[in-house]
Design a protein that fits this description.
The complex is a heterodimer. Chain A has a single domain (about 5-240), classed as MetI-like fold. In chain A, about 75% of the residues lie in helices and about 0% in strands. Chain A contains 10 helices and no strands. In chain A, helix 2 (about 15-45) runs antiparallel to helix 3 (about 50-65) and helix 2 (about 15-45) packs antiparallel against helix 8 (about 180-190). Chain B has a domain at about 1-95 and about 200-265: 3-Layer(aba) Sandwich (Rossmann fold). In chain B, strand 7 (about 175-180), helix 6 (about 185-200) and strand 8 form a beta-alpha-beta unit. Chain B is about 35% helix and about 25% strand. Chain B is α/β, with parallel strands linked by helices. Classes of the chains: A mainly alpha, B alpha/beta. The interface of A and B includes residues 128, 138, 146, 229 and 240 of A. Bound molecules: adenosine-5'-diphosphate and magnesium ion. The site of magnesium ion has 4 residues of chain B, from helix 1.
């Protein structure tokens, strides 16, 4: 019944768990990157005047929010191969299926964050850029995007933490991420406490590191407080004005 | 004072009409700003001063009329999209006029230096080094040479507006457009901005200025235009329009403004 430190420490520093943690982080990062990539145009579409586009995005958001992520995981892994032989080929791994499921799901949440951030950008500053003859795409890249990105940063990191934990759902399709290897270990050893503690510690460390990184990032790109305004976002986003 | 500097017209507006939905704000405005002159627009709130200024750099597309900037004429026909004018031509006109806004509208995520070089680099294609060098000179000229690395939020209102003036000067504009540049400032910061504007006026930069600082307007203007009910209610040299208005509406306006606003640049 007592906690066995050896049984805890061995997997903690084992290659299997480290690799699983890496897969967990990689899946979350790749899924969030994909979700952001498709949710930015969706947010712009929601703000656009076209009623049909807005309606389509609303339907998308409604559908993907309503249906559990777990169901999407199972759907993309089990059902997609029945639609097309493409999904029976070797590239279609559990990682790919989980990635697609998380991207389409996360995009539905991220789109609202993006939209709120885009709407929060000061109109007067966009107008000033217009008045100086900037092309609309330049205005987006040089003014709207950097400011919206800063506004969206805290809620986006929150989303990422939720997403990181949602990768554990991929254990149902046997992706070798943290929860899967944990479940496999306890299934043979019945050392529940130790292995669950290992998994918990991994998640805790990942999220803590991320949170520290977030507050650094927020301070670095803080141009809204008088104390210390940040530098370097323009460089980060490829703008040349410095 | 500046009538002597008059030369070729930098800005020429003919029969400008602009309406929002059913409200016709400008009902046929003519305006000429000769090179080196200062044309001041006055009028009560809602009389269309901002609208006229925004039409000049095409932030608003006029319904009809002609606008010529340094000889390049745009003819507007409100039935067509963008008034029938090519978007590239619109951007070219915009980048030839420097606009200064009431609320500064500096880009808050850029340093003051970045603000000043952004349009030269990204719109006009000026080499970065050259733009930076010029920006430093302009910031010194408006008295904030040491603030180049600050973000706008770190500056006082007066400093921000001076940075905005430097930003407008950085594109080497054919003319500067000021929309109530001191209205958002605390009273003690007004004079430092007016002093910069006066220096520019005396330096021969063409300006169209919207202001409620009538005392200042009398000092720097070549010509004053009183907008009233969508048309030019009165126009002439500042001493005439501001001291001895010919129309009842202008007389009433000037009297009420002088009654409430007293600030000016102390000599
Ligand atoms: N974008 C707009 N849409 C509708 N009405 C507007 C818009 N901008 C200005 N107006 C109206 O046009 C009139 C003139 O406004 P404005 O040019 O801002 O006046 P001023 O600058 O002289 O105070 C006002 O009645 C104002 O309500
Ligand atoms: Mg106005």
């Amino acid at each position: 019944m007592s906690f066995n430190l050896d049984v805890f420490l061995t997997p903690l520093f084992s290659l299997v768990f480290m690799k699983a943690a890496l897969i967990t982080v990689a899946l979350a990062v790749a899924a969030h990157a994909g979700a952001i990539l498709i949710s930015v145009p969706m947010a712009l579409g929601l703000n656009s005047g076209r009623r049909l586009i807005r309606a389509m995005i609303r339907v998308y958001v409604g559908v993907f929010r309503a249906i559990p992520t777990l169901l999407w995981m199972l759907f993309f892994w089990n059902a997609m191969p029945q639609f097309s032989p493409i999904f029976r080929e070797s590239w279609y791994t559990p990682f790919m299926a989980a990635w697609i499921a998380l991207v389409v799901n996360e995009a539905a949440y991220q789109v609202e964050i993006n939209r709120a951030a885009l709407n929060a950008v000061d109109r007067a500053q966009i107008q000033a850029a217009t008045a100086f003859g900037f092309h609309p795409l330049q205005i987006f890249r040089l003014v709207t995007l950097p400011q919206a990105a800063r506004i969206a940063l805290p809620p986006t990191v929150n989303e990422f933490i939720t997403l990181l934990k949602a990768t554990s759902l991929a254990s149902v399709i046997s992706l070798q991420e943290l929860m899967t290897v944990t479940n496999q270990a306890v299934a043979t050893t019945f050392q529940f406490q130790e292995y669950y503690a290992v998994a918990a510690l991994y998640y805790l460390v990942i999220v803590t590191v991320l949170t520290l990184f977030q507050s650094r990032l927020e301070r670095r790109f803080d141009w809204t407080t008088e104390r210390k305004a940040g530098r370097g976002l323009m460089r980060l986003l490829g703008g040349r004005a410095r | 004072m500046s009538e002597a500097k008059a030369g070729q017209p930098r800005i020429r507006v003919r029969d400008l009409v602009k309406s929002y939905n059913r409200l016709t704000v400008l009902k046929g405005i003519d305006l000429d700003a000769e090179e080196g002159s200062v044309v001041t627009l006055i009028g009560s709130s809602g009389s269309g001063k901002s609208t006229l200024l925004r039409c000049l750099n095409l932030l608003e597309i006029p319904d009809s009329g002609d606008i010529a900037i340094d000889g390049e004429t745009l003819h507007f026909d409100g039935r067509k999209r963008a008034g029938g004018v090519d978007p590239r031509q619109i951007r070219r006109v915009r980048s030839s006029l420097g606009m200064v806004f009431q609320n500064f509208a500096l880009w808050s995520h850029m340093t003051i230096l970045e603000n000043v070089i952004a349009a030269p680099v990204h719109v006009l294609g000026v080499p970065r080094e050259q733009a930076v060098e010029r920006a430093h000179a302009l910031l010194r000229r408006v008295g904030i040479g040491d603030k180049h690395a600050c973000f706008p939020v770190q500056l006082s209102g007066g400093q921000q507006q001076r940075a905005a003036i430097a930003r407008a000067l950085a594109i080497e504009p054919k003319a500067l457009l000021f929309d109530e540049p001191t209205s958002a400032l605390d009273p003690e910061l007004v004079s430092e901005v007016l002093r910069v504007i006066r220096d520019l006026a005396e330096g021969g930069i063409t300006m169209v200025l919207v202001t409620h600082e009538l005392r200042f307007a009398r000092e720097v203007s070549s010509r004053v235009i009183f907008l009233h009910q969508g048309v030019i209610g009165e126009t002439g040299p500042p001493d005439q329009v501001l001291r001895d208005p010919q129309t009842e509406a202008c007389r009433r306006f000037v009297r009420s403004e002088f009654g409430t606003r007293m600030s000016s640049v102390e000599e």
